Structure formats: C-alpha cells, structure tokens
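User: For a reading group we're discussing how well predicted structures match intuition. Take Pectinesterase inhibitor domain-containing protein. Before you show the prediction, I'll give you the sequence so everyone sees exactly what went in.
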Amino acid sequence: MKKMVVVMMIMMVMVMVSEASMIEQTCKETPDFNLCVSLLDSDPRGSSADTSGLALILVDKIKGLATKTLKEINSLYKKRPELKQALDECSRRYKTILKADVPEAIEAISKGVPKFGEDGVIDAGVEAAVCEGEFKGKSPLTSLTKSMQKVSNVTRAIVRMLL
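Assistant: Thanks. Here is the predicted 3D structure of Pectinesterase inhibitor domain-containing protein, as structure tokens, for the group to look at:
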C-alpha cells in the first residue's frame, strides 16, 4: 500500500513538472519569457494546454486587455473631454480588436490555420500602436497600449510555432 502511494505521488509530481515545462519551453521561444509565463500560469487551462491551447489562452488575454482599455477610454471621455478626437480613434481601434482581430485569431487557431491567427494577433498590436500615436506623446493610455503590444508580440511568437 505504501509503495502504491509513493508511486502515485511520484507520478503526480512528474505530471506537474511536465506541465510547467511545457509552458516554460514554449515561453522560451517568445520575446518576453517572464510575461509569457505570468500570463499562462495565471490561467488554469495553461497547465494542460498544448501549443494551440496556449495560443488561445493568450488571445483571450488580448480580448481581456482590449475590453479593459475600452472601459478606460469610456471613463476618459468624462475626465478628459479635450482628448475626444484621440479617444474616438482609440475606441474604434480597440473595437476592431474585439470584433475582428480576436474572433479571426480564435477561429484560425481553432481550425488549424495559424497564419490567419497570426494576422489577427499582429493587427491587435498595430491597432494599439496607432491608438497611442493619436495622442502625440501625451497619452493617458500608454500603459495599456504598451501592454497590448507586448502581449500581442508574445502571442504572435506562439502562433508562429503552429505554422
């Protein structure tokens, strides 16, 4: 009986090590290892996901960040009405991420056509950069737009592994 318990414990440890190593191995191939590990470890699906699953988790992170940024944009309309024009452009950009880029990436990765998934992920980073540029250096969204660019770059690297 003791041997069986010990064997079971060893097997559980081996599974946990292999799960962690999948995330770590995958993240080593991205431009930001620490961000990648942090994002994937924060999602319970990460521990059992294959590369496609890890990519989909990160696309969900892009979606969540875009949603958060849109909420911030909406609150800035009240606080900073002088930025209406730039905020309007950013709102359009982040809505594009949510309505076009994210669904395109999810569908493409899910259907095994990662090239189109890569396109959606790249575009999310581009949309964030264009939004940031609308403020001419005085953006109240810099932290969020830079985060979107970083998450997009990490996600792109993982999607490229599927090509």
